[in-house]
Design a protein that fits this description.
Layout: E1 4-7, H1 11-22, H2 30-41, E2 52-57, E3 63-69, E4 75-78, H3 84-96, E5 103-107, H4 108-121, E6 126-137, E7 149-152, H5 158-172, H6 181-189, E8 193-198, E9 201-209, E10 215-222, H7 232-246, E11 251-257, H8 261-269, E12 273-283
Parallel strand pairs: 4-5, 10-11
Antiparallel strand pairs: 1-2, 2-3, 3-4, 5-12, 6-11, 6-12, 7-8, 8-9, 9-10
Helix pairs in contact: 1-2, 3-4, 5-6, 7-8
Length: 284
């Protein structure tokens, strides 16, 4: 069977080719789907470099592998079911087109296989950086809350929101651009930045981003060290999820780092169900 890899410059064309497959399981596919939908709005939403959008098809025209990359972030790869020949074809096409990959991320069995292939075909070493678990929620489970309440951020909160998100970025050594007042304002104006506030003080932040078709991702959950272990993050994720469901989303989803058992526990307590694991590699 022959395989063909096509690269796309236009996100509408890419979505036209991939959306029926990606929409079958939004949480499992939420990185590729969410990124592609955001690139449809703004091709350079994640940086100045041209994004990568590629699809491998078999001789019957079926999509066998899908990839999206917004440098400097790792390439997100999708192949369901895992098709090793398609992943090899993708790897060869990327090398032929001189794409430089900082790493790969995706559903564990797919990213594991691609990392092995890439390592064999290049002089780079694949290093497992992070084990993630994708969860989804359709109904919030009521739990006891700590003191305080959720507040939807307003424009005057943009600097504080950016500062908290940057503190998280530094502490976790995350890739990408620093949060700015301007991009915090963009999310605030969509009413998707949420604070947990107690005694007039903001103690936790989270945002809702990467809209899919029926779902939206809860991310950027951060509590400064001095306010931890008091239940603020669990309460805020519960209330922010409830808020997004009330706006018409059928599901909310999120990722946790499997190295952090606390986050995996508290999100399940409010109703999040595990869907699949992701493995993120760096290529060195």
């Amino acid at each position: 069977m022959s395989y063909q890899t096509v690269f796309f410059q236009n996100s509408n064309d890419f979505l036209g080719k991939t959306l029926p497959d990606l929409a079958k399981d939004e949480t499992r596919n939420n990185l590729v789907l969410g990124l592609a939908l955001r690139l449809k709005e703004d091709l350079y939403a994640f940086g100045e470099a041209d994004p990568l959008m590629a699809v491998v098809t078999d001789s019957a025209g079926r999509n066998t592998a899908i990839a999206v990359m917004t440098p400097p972030f790792p390439m997100i790869v999708n192949s369901d079911p895992v098709d090793e020949i398609a992943l090899k074809a993708l790897s060869d096409a990327l090398i032929s087109e001189n794409w430089q990959l900082p790493g790969v991320n995706g559903v564990a069995e797919v990213s594991d296989r691609f990392a092995d292939i890439w390592q064999a075909r290049t002089s780079q070493t694949a290093k497992l950086q992070m084990r993630l678990r994708a969860y989804e929620l359709r109904e919030v489970t009521e739990v006891g809350y700590p003191d305080g309440q959720m507040r939807i951020a307003v424009e005057e909160d943009a600097q504080q929101a950016a500062d908290l998100l940057n503190a998280m970025r530094v502490e976790l050594n995350l890739l990408g651009r620093s949060a700015t007042v301007e991009n915090a304002l963009e999310i605030i104006r969509m009413e998707r930045v949420f604070f947990w506030e107690t005694g007039g003080k903001v103690v936790t932040v989270t945002i809702a981003n990467r809209s899919q078709i029926k779902g939206i991702c809860i991310s950027g959950v951060y509590t400064p060290p001095e306010h931890r272990r008091k239940g603020y993050a669990r309460a805020l994720v519960a209330e922010a999820s409830k808020e997004m469901l009330s706006r018409g989303y059928e599901i909310t989803n999120l990722f946790t780092d499997l190295a952090n058992p606390t986050s995996n526990k508290i999100y399940q307590e409010v109703g999040y169900k595990p869907v699949c694991d992701y493995h993120q590699y760096s290529f060195e």
